[in-house]
Design brief:
The protein has a two-stranded antiparallel ribbon with strand order 1-2. The chain has a domain at 2-71: Orthogonal Bundle (434 Repressor (Amino-terminal Domain)), CATH 1.10.260. Helices cover 45% and strands 4% of the residues. It is mostly helical. The chain has helices at residues 5-10, 17-26, 33-41, 49-59, 63-66, 81-88; strands at residues 2-3, 67-68.
Length: 107
């Protein structure tokens, strides 16, 4: 996912993080300067759903404008060793094994 807050804000004439921070505070979301800097300048590790709701309300945008999917950056899964053996190897007959002679637990 690509975090697109800065462009979404710029499309609405908001050019400074402090300006957006004041607008968020007016809607009840008080964000520290450090957290605002992280949201504004990079890819945040975590964003609360409530915070996303307030950001969308302030910017009058949808979540799809703040978070842009990048499916091309995800690698295709590699086949596991078991799958390779099943495809390459021959089918072997399954033979039952004798029990080890252990007793059942007491009732």
């Amino acid at each position: 996912m690509k975090w697109n807050l800065r462009l979404a804000a710029a499309n609405r004439g908001i050019w400074k993080a402090s300006e957006l921070q004041h607008m968020l505070a007016e809607r009840g979301l008080v964000i520290s300067a450090g957290k605002m800097s992280g949201l504004w300048s990079g890819n945040p590790n975590a964003v609360k759903l409530h915070d996303l709701d307030v950001l969308c309300a302030v910017l009058e945008c949808g979540i799809d404008e703040l978070l842009i999917p990048e499916p091309d950056t995800i690698a295709a899964p590699a086949p596991s060793a078991g799958e390779k053996a099943a495809v390459i190897g021959e089918a072997r007959a399954v033979t039952p094994r004798a029990r080890s002679g252990r007793s059942l637990p007491p009732r």
